[in-house]
Amino acid sequence: MTTYRISQLAERSGVPATTLRFYEDAGLLPAERTPSGYRMYGEDAVERLAFISSAKLLGLALEEIRELLDVREEGVCASVRARMLPLVADRITDTDSRIAELRAFSAHLACVHADLSGPAPAGACGPDCGCTTTPAAAGPVPITLSPTRPRPAPEAWRETPVTCTLGGAELSGRTDQWQQLVGKADGREEIPDGVRLSFPAGAELAGEVAALAAAEQGCCAFFDFRLHLTPTALQLEVRAPESAAGMLADLFGATA
Asked: Element (H or E) spanning 226, and its range?
């Protein structure tokens, strides 16, 4: 019977040892202990990890994955499929809602862009110049990106496990994307649990910020993003649990 120590399993599966420990604590990946206290995993651990990774890419919650693993242990594929079907259907509904939100946001940006592209009046800004008022909306337009799944309570991100579904080149690429975007900020302010970044107003940049924030929530649900848009200002607020302070610092320049 093949067994793996945690370092061997991490190398074989490509899943970091820290994530393996988290999966054990969450009840997703059982491990035995040697007399000296080392974790030992069975030969089915690699296949089990592949299933967990696949389920996370579908946006399933840890509780749902744990339930699926219990069903999978029974050895009947039809039972696993029967449980997965409604879960995937829920994710489709969530995704469609997020697409509708982003389309509405994009339509608003297009209206603002169209207004600002017209001829400017002579002289200084005024109430009807279009810089502070548009036909689409008057005043600030707060846009809160919904999570990848419904939150059971306000600020549930505080209780969300700090874990990311990306790894290797994908994680490196995402980090580069954020660093390039944050480099365009012209203001940074520490706020409780996170940071507020200010950007030059612009439809193209606002769309870039919104798209990257939505992608990040798809793999790191513990982040809380809030985007505030006016015709003259663009702000992104990012919050995360205390245990993710290091990631806030790495990606957004917050104080760890």
From this structure: strand 224-230
Report the sign of the C-alpha dihedral through residues 95, 100, 101, 102, in that order.
positive
H-only helix segments in 156-202: 168-182
Q: 224-230 and 194-199 as β-strands: parallel, antiparallel, unpaired?
A: unpaired
Q: How many Cβ atoms from other residues are within 10 Å of residue 87's Cβ?
A: 18
How far the first Cα of the chain sits from its last, in Å, is 44
Spatial distance between the Cα atoms of 39 and 177, rounded to a whole number of angstroms: 36
3-state secondary structure of 190: strand
Q: Match 């019977």 to its residue by tokens.
A: 1
Place of tokens 């917050």: 254
* Residue listed under structure tokens 């015709």: 231
Cβ-contact 192, 155 below 8 angstroms: no
Phi, psi of 19 (to 5 degrees): -70, -35
Burial status of residue 236 (CB atoms within 10 A of its CB: 0-12, 13-18, 19 or more): buried
**What is the per-residue DSSP string for 128-146?**
TSSSSB-SS-BS-EEE-PP
Beta bridge partners of 225: 238
Neighbours of 15 (CB within 10 A): 21
Q: Please give the DSSP secondary-structure letter assigned to residue 188.
A: E
pLDDT tens for residues 209-231? 888 888 888 888 888 898 887 77
Whole-structure pTM over 0.90, yes or no? no
Q: List pLDDT tens digits, range 83-107.
A: 999 999 988 888 888 888 888 888 8
d(CA 164, CA 179): 18
